[in-house]
Structures are given as C-alpha cells and as structure tokens.
From TrEMBL:
Region of interest (Disordered), residue spans: 339-366
Compartment(s) of residence: Cell membrane
Membrane topology type: Multi-pass membrane protein
Biased composition (Basic and acidic residues): 343-352
Gene Ontology molecular function: any one: transmembrane transporter activity
Record-given protein name: ABC transporter permease
The keyword Iron-sulfur is assigned to this record: no
InterPro entries: ABC_transp_permease (IPR001851)
Keyword entries, A-Z: Cell membrane, Membrane, Transmembrane, Transmembrane helix
Keyword Transmembrane: yes
Predominant cellular place of this UniProt entry's protein: membrane
GO cellular component: plasma membrane
Organism: Polyangium spumosum
Bilayer-spanning residue ranges: 55-73, 85-102, 108-131, 188-211, 241-263, 293-312
Amino acid sequence: MKGLRARVLLPIVLSIAGGVLLFNLIAFAFGQAPAAALRLAFEGTWGTPYGLGQVLFKATPLLFTGLAFEIALRAGLFNIGAEGQLALASLVGALVASRLPASLPMPIALPIALASAAAVGALVAFVPAILRARRGVHEIITAIMVNRIVDAVLPWTFSTVLGSASLRTADIAPGAALPRLDRVAPSLAGSAASFAFPLAVVTVFVGMALLERTRPGREIRWVGLRPEACRAEGIDVERRLLLAMLLSGAIAALAVSSTALGYKGYYELGLGAGAGWSGIAVAMLGRGKAIGIVLAAIFLGTLEQAGLVVNARVPKEAMDVLEATLIVLVAVASRVASRRVPVAKDEPESPNDKPVSTPASEEARS
C-alpha cells in the first residue's frame, strides 16, 4: 500500500515543484518578477477563500470527465468524445430543468435534470460504442466525427429549433439548481463553487470502487486486458464494451451539475468547453486511482484559475504551455516512480498491467 501511494503521490509532488520552477521562468521571460507573479497566482488560487472556491469550481467538471475517461480506458477504449457528450447533454439537461414546474422540490427536480443529461450523454456515446463492439470501427475516429456533428447541431438547435438569438436556454427551475458552497462555508462567498464538487468527489470514489469490487467492473477491466481470454471464459466482450462506453458518456454528462445547474442557472453555447479534453489528462495523471483523479483534477483546476489571475501579466497561451509541460513532467515522474518504488506481488502497477491469473481464477479468489 505504501508503494502504491508513493507511485500516485510522488509524480504529482515532483511535478508541482517543477511547475513552480517553470512558472518562474515563464514570468521572467515576459519581463515579470517571478516572485511577484507567483505570489499573485497563489493569492488568486489557494491564498484566498474566493480563489480556493474558484479552484474547486474549475476542478469539478474535470472530476466527472476524468472518471468518464478512466472507465472507458479500463475496457481498452479511448473516449475522446466526452466533449460532445457533455455539450449535448448539458443542452438537454438544462432544457429539461427549465421546463420543470417551479414548485417541484429539489429531491425530485435535480435527479430528473441529471438523469436526462446522463441519458443523452450515454446516447451520444452509444454511436462509437456500438460501432466498436459490433463492427470493430475504432472509437477515436467515430468519436471525433460525433463531436463534429454535435458542434454543428448545437448552434442550429439554438437558432432554429429554440429560436434563441442569444444562444442560451431559459433559466432552470429553482428545484433543479445546486446550491453554492458558500451556504455552508460563507468565506467562499462570490465564488462559483457549488455542491457539485462534493457530488463529483463522491462519484469518483464510488465509481472507482465499483470498478474494482464488482463483477461487472472487473469484467470491464479483464476485457480491456485480454478480450480473447474473456471470450474463452464465456464473458460477453461486446456487452462489456458497450457498458463501459455508455457509463463513460453518462458520467461525463454529469458535469452539467457544475456548469448549468450549479453555476449559470442555464446553458449557453460553449459552457463547459474543454472539460472533455482536460478529463483525458486527469485520468492519465490519476493513474487509475480515485485519490489520484481527485488530486489531478484539483491540480489542473489550480492551473486554469492561476492562468486567469495572471493573464494581465502573462499571456494565457503561456499558461497553456505550462499546463501541457506539467502533464509531460507527471508522465515522466510516474515512469521514474514506478521503477524506483517496489511493487507488491498482489499490487498491479497500473490499471493496464496484465493480471497473472485468468478471469475465472481471479473471480474465485474474490
């Protein structure tokens, strides 16, 4: 267990240290005093309650999309369609929430809005999922095409179907809105952090636990490792591929809880854009562990908020370069940590390591 924690935490710690050094170099390159720029970035993120709230807000969608990508990855799939799944699901979820009766209480209205968004996210993921499972068409190609279709459908829906010149939906019903965290933490007043953040954290830990401890979750992993062996053991590989991709799309769609339901109170074109792509980085940095996904999402959320804070002194593009470089640093540090830290016999190095036993024997031990 100690080795496992070291392999998850050590790369993030080393990358944070490298990130601070790289940030200072970027600030110096643009004629800024590194210490002053670093202090400004810290004050705008972890240095004030408002900044902390904004970090949590930025991290919340990444928790959902990071978990979504991890679920698909367990089955050997690359769900790069989370961007389109979240966008279309956000539109439908906000539309459903806006048409609910104003008197409908939260315990009823909120699940309806989230369930409708999750259903649409799964439906969008169904196209690449069924083509991969039944026809062997690579999901990356089909997911890219579906993303492009969604990009075209959304503006058309606003302008033609909804007749909205402002490219936004109507306000959601009060019962479908997630309250802000400042209700329980008044110091966070003014920030966009909502109860979507604890919801996302719980979803990550529960989702990863189900993947590890339930038979369907383990079968998804086995299918990703040895599909032919799974067929020989009688596991329906196609069904597990479909399940993984549909779950991935549904969970990615739940990021609407932070954007439309927990922040704006409506959906507008472009809201939540980029969360699907950043979720890939979160899953990769999280190294298949719930705590790793949470820390990675907060890490990238901190970078996003810091980029906004120092934008007047350091161009946003430079901060994007910093974020990409840090991801590379984490990948390198992860490889170094996996070589230096001993691995226990029964402890897989990563979710993609092949098991030493067959699916049947592993199930018999559980």
